[in-house]
Amino acid sequence: MCHSFELKASASLLLRHCPGLPLAAGERIRREQIVPGDQALVVAGGSGWLARWGLVGSFLERAPRQPPLCLDTEGLAERPFYGRLLRHNRCLVPASALAVGGWRLSHRRGRLLWLAGVCDRHADAGPTCALLTVATNVTVDARIPLILHDDEAAAWLAAGWAPAAGELAELCQPAARPALHAEARCNPGRLPQLAFDFA
Asked: Out of the domains of life, which is the source (predicted)?
């Protein structure tokens, strides 16, 4: 599971992909570590806002003690509440790197990662979100967030698109994911630094 992520990017880079974001052109975003319960930048419908990482369903009377941070994509479309979010409340969460297990994952070419997610708005908790996760065939011994290519990210946010189960499964194939760089997150005084590139 993704334990935290970071967002280090210029506003101009984010605005290039999402012109409706409320950012000043010269601004720089430097969020070293976004952890569960923190506010994350969420993009949908041509605009962006902050949403708490940890999904609270709008139908709940009160927020659960441990709201879901990540949702497995397998079977998600068939689950009533999550299927509705998948059809109508898809979002993207931009990140420059992920912390998964003992690894730091980033794009091999230094590009922004577009994480597929769903969001909802609760009367008390406000806007919240969760990331969708997929199995991986790499060194990382965990599921990782579904990372979309730029063209897939645009399709993910398209109002008229509702992913069928087969379409979502195809999107989640490890071979179709962007090339990532995995760097061991360890104490350099005790262990040698390891790094791997994988597709």
From this structure: Bacteria
Distance between CA 77 and CA 166 in Å, rounded?
Answer: 10
Taking only the tens place, the pLDDT of each residue in 29-75 is 899 999 999 999 999 877 888 999 999 999 898 888 899 999 998 88
DSSP letter (8 states) at residue 98:
E
Q: Work out the end-to-end distance of the chain between its first and last CA atoms, rounded to an integer number of angstroms.
A: 19
pTM over 0.90: no
Share in percent of the chain as helix, strand, coil (round to 5): 20, 40, 40
2-184 CATH, one of 3.40.50.261, 3.90.1680.10, 3.30.540.10, 3.30.450.20: 3.90.1680.10
